[in-house]
Amino acid sequence: MSGPNTPVGADLTHIDAEGRARMVDVSDKATTTREATARGRIAMRPETLVLALSGGGKKGDVRAVAEIAGVMAAKRTSDLIPMCHPLMLISVKVAVRPSKDGSGLEATATARTQGQTGVEMEALTAVSVALLTLYDMLKAVDREMVVADIALLAKSGGASGDWSRP
């Protein structure tokens, strides 16, 4: 529990008693269904958005490629994020859609597992890579795009219970 007299880092689970980084031991945790959803956005010029939505650019359907890239990235999260447990994912869904305000695209990812640790990092990694894939595929026409607001929206399962962004 943190408070005004708690040393900095005392609640960090990836730091051992000597202050060294470690992979958390999850062997005593119950196996449960765990799910996490994350979202992020990429802002772009209106003409870039039209191109991305048309699916007919020189690089094809960039949204479909970004969705596949997000799924593939979720499966490799433990290779990308130090101390992250390798997980057997039950499912990963990535959707790239126009943002509600019309300023670009949003990527949303939901990852699920049956395991001893959560899938928040897998959902966040899926969103990040999907958005970076869009940037890569569209940068020739719009180098001013901005990837932003990558955030966990909700998680369920595990000892810490359910959580959702207010």
From TrEMBL:
Keywords: Lyase, Molybdenum cofactor biosynthesis. The active site is at 136. Substrate binds at residues 83-85, 121-122. Coiled coil: none annotated. Its EC number is 4.6.1.17. Pathway: Cofactor biosynthesis; molybdopterin biosynthesis. It catalyses: (8S)-3',8-cyclo-7,8-dihydroguanosine 5'-triphosphate = cyclic pyranopterin phosphate + diphosphate. Residues 23-158 form the Molybdopterin cofactor biosynthesis C (MoaC) domain. InterPro entries: MoaC, MoaC_bact/euk, MoaC_sf, MoCo_biosynth_MoaA/MoaC, Mopterin_CF_biosynth-C_dom. It is an enzyme of class 4 (lyase). Belongs to the MoaC family. Homohexamer; trimer of dimers. Catalyzes the conversion of (8S)-3',8-cyclo-7,8-dihydroguanosine 5'-triphosphate to cyclic pyranopterin monophosphate (cPMP). This is Cyclic pyranopterin monophosphate synthase. The gene is moaC.
